[in-house]
Design a protein that fits this description.
Helix content: 10-25%
Radius of gyration: 33 Å
Number of helices: 10
Length: 547
């Protein structure tokens, strides 16, 4: 016999002899000192002691680690009895995720005060009674043929060695038992669940779509000020989808969260952010970072009701007569000769600026000729453009004044006001955000913590622009410099409509109900409301338009 094989055999024999000796000792104890009924545990019974703080090695939950516990582990290992999941946590004294005869031996030595290398026996197991497990994703979209590895964790430090994964629809998604590696098989949905030894679970709903044939980013060009952040998002042709990875070619200028698309401006310069799918489809956004030396933004943490910034009205900054602006609004509301010029135009959550009356035109980056839709920023933009060009034409799209009549994304849809200042649109589509414009140009504005505080301030005048900032941002805080799809903007416009007092002209929730019982979205004059509700609006900014 070779020396190496002989050495291995001798070590194995030694361990086996120790285990046999241990079993003989425990069997003798079991035959005499310990009553059988104490040991016969079943999976469906949990003692009152079990419900208290568990102790490592205390398998029978009597508050002590004794030879009785070693015997229970021995019998469970030999399939003579079964023990509950919570008992297994206490029995696995070497914390390797398995309960076997070695655990019994360690408990026996501890009870007989024989030195062992295992530590922690006889001490409370923290958080075992509130075992938890989490996954890095609760919902996920994959393309057919795509793989993805779920990441498990336990906030309470639970041993996840024995945790197992399963799929409720393996024809759609399969998952490896221990590794959590998903494989998308066919179009459909499946729920993938992880379960720990003592029954804690977490799930991820996986939607599988056709493999993408193309991918589109919500921004091709993006301008950020130093320190600003912006969420890039992707879209696919109908019925297609995949998990998307983002990467920056210049992380010193603009970094990006690889799985979330959150871009953060680091220093002045240019970077390209590329979004890529598992099958090689990609799209790129060029990010330009500038340092405008803007004042510190107002957030929900530093706001004081009624605080004021800026000295000039918006009409002064953009160079239009306030009377023209009010006349334009009055001539296009629900009591005018053109009540459906704006009102009723379907809402769109992109850079869309085409009201009902201008079908066939295309103004914003996401406008398509013949499609009438308006975002909340698109509506405000159009009213300000109309004020700037009042009396100079029909305010429709032409090839002058920065407008274009082609398809979306064919040109930058900018309009420079008579003073040369850009009118901001959706999330810096034209290179400047509302926050940057009103900060740079010192536009007069007031800040409030709540809608009630704003309404009771006495500051509001007809035609003022109201920005509502949601706390649904990447850091959970409402701030005037952070982007969110739930920020909202409209015009303060007190009026009476169908016997009801209204005060907010905007493109968003119009108070209607669709066939599914959900709120509908269009251009309308309602009470002041956010994109969904006021619950998440933590910062209100009133921009003064009148001189």
């Amino acid at each position: 016999m070779k020396k190496k094989n002989r050495t291995t055999w001798i070590k194995a024999r030694s361990v086996l002899c120790v285990c046999i000796a241990s079993l003989m000792t425990l069997s003798a104890i079991s035959a005499g000192a310990v009553k059988q009924e104490t040991l016969e545990t079943n999976n469906n019974v949990q003692s009152a002691a079990e419900k208290s703080t568990p102790i490592l090695g205390d398998v029978n939950s009597d508050g002590n680690v004794t030879l009785r516990d070693a015997i229970e582990v021995q019998k469970n290992s030999l399939s003579i009895i079964g023990i509950s999941d919570s008992q297994k946590i206490c029995a696995d004294v070497d914390r390797n995720g398995k309960v076997n005869l070695l655990d019994s031996l360690y408990i026996q030595k501890y009870a007989l005060q024989i030195p062992i290398a295992i530590t922690g026996i006889g001490k409370a197991i923290s958080s075992v009674g509130s075992d938890t497990v989490t996954l890095n994703k609760s919902a996920l979209t994959l393309g057919v043929g795509e793989s993805y590895t779920l990441i498990k964790s336990s906030p309470t430090g639970t041993n996840l060695t024995t945790a197992v994964y399963s799929s409720d629809n393996t024809s759609v998604v399969t998952v490896t038992l221990r590794g959590g590696v998903l494989s998308a098989k066919s179009v459909g949905k499946a729920v993938v669940t992880i379960k720990t030894a003592n029954g804690a679970t977490a799930s991820c709903t996986v939607t599988v779509k056709k493999a993408p044939t193309s991918i589109t980013l919500n921004r091709i060009l993006l301008n950020l000020n130093l320190g600003e952040s912006y969420y890039l998002d992707t879209s696919f042709p109908i019925g297609e989808g995949a998990n998307v990875k983002y990467k920056s070619n210049n992380t010193s200028v603009a970094s990006v969260n690889s799985s979330g698309g959150l871009v953060t401006a680091k220093k002045a310069g240019t970077a390209k952010i590329t979004a890529t799918t598992y099958n090689g489809k990609s799209a790129t956004c060029t990010v330009t970072v500038t340092n405008l030396n803007l004042p510190a933004p107002i957030t929900e943490d530093n706001i004081v009701n009624g605080m004021k910034r800026g000295t000039k009205s918006l009409s002064e900054v953009l160079g239009f007569k306030f009377s023209y602006y009010l006349s334009w609004l009055d001539n296009h509301d629900f009591d005018s000769s053109k009540p459906d010029y704006y009102i009723g135009t379907p809402y769109a959550g992109a850079d869309c600026r085409v009201p009902n009356a201008l079908k066939g035109k295309a103004f914003g980056h996401n406008d398509a000729v013949g499609d009438c839709k308006m975002s909340n920023t698109g509506f405000v933009w159009h009213t300000l453009y109309a004020a700037c060009t009042y009396g100079k034409g029909d305010n429709s799209a032409t090839n002058s004044d920065g407008y274009f009549a082609g398809l979306h994304n064919s040109k930058k849809c900018q309009y420079y006001s008579p003073t040369g200042v850009k009118i901001p649109t959706l999330d810096k589509s034209d290179g400047i955000s509302w926050y940057e414009m009103y900060s740079q140009q010192q536009v007069k504005r007031y800040y409030y913590k709540s809608k009630d505080a704003m309404l009771q301030s006495g500051v509001l005048e007809k035609g003022d622009i109201i920005w509502q900032f949601s706390n649904r941002t990447y850091n959970g805080k409402a701030a005037e410099n952070l982007s969110s799809s739930l920020h909202h903007v409209g015009i303060y416009y007190p009026a009476t409509y169908k016997g009801k007092s209204v005060n907010f002209w905007h493109s968003g929730l119009d108070g209607g109900i669709d066939s599914n019982g959900w709120g509908t979205m269009s251009n309308s004059i309602t009470q002041i409301t956010g994109m969904t509700s006021d619950d998440n609006i933590k910062l209100y900014v009133v921009i003064k338009v009148a001189p």
